[in-house]
Amino acid sequence: MRRTLLTLLACLSLLFGGAVVAAPAQADQAPPEQWRSYWVDAFNAGIYSPDQVSTLIEDARAVNANALIVQTARRYDCFCNRALYPRTDAAIDPAPYDPLDEVIEQAHAAGLEVHAWVNVNTLWNSATPPTSPDHVFNQHGPTAEGAERWLNKKADGTEFSGANAYIDPGHPAAVDYIESAVRSIVREYDVDGINLDYVRYPDGSSETTHSDWGYNDVSVARFQHATGRDDVPEPSDAQWSDWRRDQVTGLVRRLYLGIWEENPQARLSMDAITYGHGPSRVGGFENTRTYGEVLQDWDGWLDEGIMDTVVAMNYKRNWEPEQAEMYSEWSEFLADAQGDRQAVNGPALYLNSVADSVQQAKEALAPTAAGNTVAGWSGYSYATASIDVPESTPEAERGALAEALTTGADAPFAERAEVPDMAWKSTPQEGHVTGELALRDGTALDGAEVTLIPLGRGEERVARADGSGWFGFAHVSPGHYLAKVTLPDGVVGVPLLPVRVGKGTVADAPFPPFLALPGA
Question: Domain boundary at 360, 394, 425, which?
């Protein structure tokens, strides 16, 4: 057929005196799938007014981006009007202006996704308290006492790092609040996803092999109850480190399944720590500072399927040889470790010249020795697009970066691309199970073991209830199961329930409240 068409065109060309008659254009091919985004922080201009948002959208389009990671909950204050987090004190345009609404409206009109960036465990960072009486810092910060105090604490009793205060992810009430607040954003706004930052323990420990943080009184008491110990563990205690790391993982699992309940198509992403040398250099992921120092097991979250997209903060100076090696090591690990989920390489634009950032972008997207490539690129940050700010202006550097990334035969973003599909969400083949375990007086069965037993082929799976009694199983094959609770001594009730799991749904395991026997 094509040969016949070309012959016909040649005849027409002769008929019209040799004039060139162009062949009809081939149907446009679908654009490639490759994540491209800016992180847009809320400490700088970008979303404070509708005009700033318009400029942001223009700049994102200039770099052929297809997504924006927009800081929405900065320090438990919200750049939005309809969330559990109180509205920010920052100098944004007055209400009814809603920064998140404005970004979503303009970005979606331009074909850009919006991922609401939420700082999870960073509570406040100023000597002046927030004005809202509902802010967690005012409710559960330094003026609160007993279990109402959610502040993270070091082994030496320190609760602040300068003016920075943090939430302890081992405190059940804090976890409840975080889940409710994140779900409120997904429920109230047409976001394409949630991006978690600081979903870990804080920096500033005495060693790079363990964390000095996590000593909130409630957290220590929970650890002692779970292990049967009565001592206060040392920061380097392996059992203590594992328990604290599990608290972060439990929070991520709960957010993943909670977001799925609100919007099964919303993407959960997170900003991954890549301190120091990569796993290949230090003997594996469990020997990295990520796993040991800040207790963040994002590699395990990819394996479990409770994180859709890891956006690695691969912040390295390309012009320093050792840091360039670190960048390469983490880039290779990201591509090879993502499995059937997605990893995005996020270099630090502010640490590099435009030329170095282009080189890092090309390396980030290149195949590894195993033939794997990451899902895309995210630049940190929109506010400071190169190390040459402020010698140059932010606008000039963003323009130079956009031109370098999109112009020329070898430009990495010369063509537009689409955000990669999440097949496990767009066409799900698995479901999930959640439930809560509590006594009749409302006391949570913290740490109770739940076994999911398939009625047919399949392997049993085991989970433990968190400090609020919540448990969850992610990505379970469809079918019929029994959920079995191993009850503590002195507690009685119905320990076995049937559960039916369907594709793409979150099944409830509604255990009735249990009874604690007198004297138990």
Answer: 425
